[in-house]
Amino acid sequence: MSGVEIRELETFLVLAQELHFGRTGERLYVSQSRVSQLLRSLESRIGAPLVERTSRRVRLTPLGESFLADLRPAYDTLRAAVEGARAAARGLGGELRVGFQGTVDGCLGRAIALFTDRHPDCAVTIVEIPLSDPFGALRRHEVDCAVVLLPVAEDDLTLGPAFSRQPQTLAVSARHPFAARESLSAEELACCRLIGIDGGAPEYWRRAQAPALTPGGLPVPAGPTVNTLQEGLSLAAADRGAMLLCRSTADYHGRRGSLAFVAVRDLPASELGLVRHRTRPSPRAEAFARAVTEITGTTGITEITGPAS
């Protein structure tokens, strides 16, 4: 990197947030002139200005904007790696709070057991989070990481690993015409009212769990909306609508005599992902992510892209 120093990069990142040399110096505990010096050194290494500074305002140049977009995720990953190594060196104590939606399957249970074996001084608390708010508990610092249904397209969160890819099933009342079927096509969803998720979750996420159209473009009638899995199962049992679930959740609840679970062909598979803060990495959460990666045989951090239209 042609001798680029981490302090230069940190100065640029803070200045890009503050857009003020004085406040940047205060945050970094250096003088305003030192901020200017570090910025000039970085710009000299790059070969072009990253910041425009006038008597009235400070703003990033187009190159600065592009550099910031590339630098931020790389810096966050580097910082998380350093924090993870420091945590491994000193051991992890305290508490890890893991949020989850639906049920804790065997894969997640094994990951928790592996994490506990490696870090016996760190207690693991399991916190159920509502379907209607998959990311809120993480943003409110109520949990350190969360296992949620995909997709995830949140700029402030890191996704990975993704795991537990399974076919989708439809939960219906035992009295429903579909109840005696072994499977149905995705196009037949147009014949039932689909239970949706209440409005706290992002629109793209809610649509993924309860699509408005079949793959062939047929409209799917909207049923009632719910906050929790149990609410959805209760409404399905009362024949108020049908609810899409992953295979493992259907198997877990499969002994309920009031419900039937029917495989749905031609739908994208359901998948879970472990989500953490991007800007506030937690050594405990990163260590847990490594445990999940080992148990699931997946590849770790997944790049988050923007929500589908």
TrEMBL record:
It comes from Kitasatospora albolonga. Belongs to the LysR transcriptional regulatory family. Pfam families: HTH_1, LysR_substrate. GO terms for molecular function: DNA binding. Keywords: DNA-binding, Transcription, Transcription regulation. Residues 4-61 form the HTH lysR-type domain. It comes from the Bacteria. This is LysR family transcriptional regulator. Gene3D superfamilies: Periplasmic binding protein-like II (3.40.190.10), Winged helix-like DNA-binding domain superfamily/Winged helix DNA-binding domain (1.10.10.10).
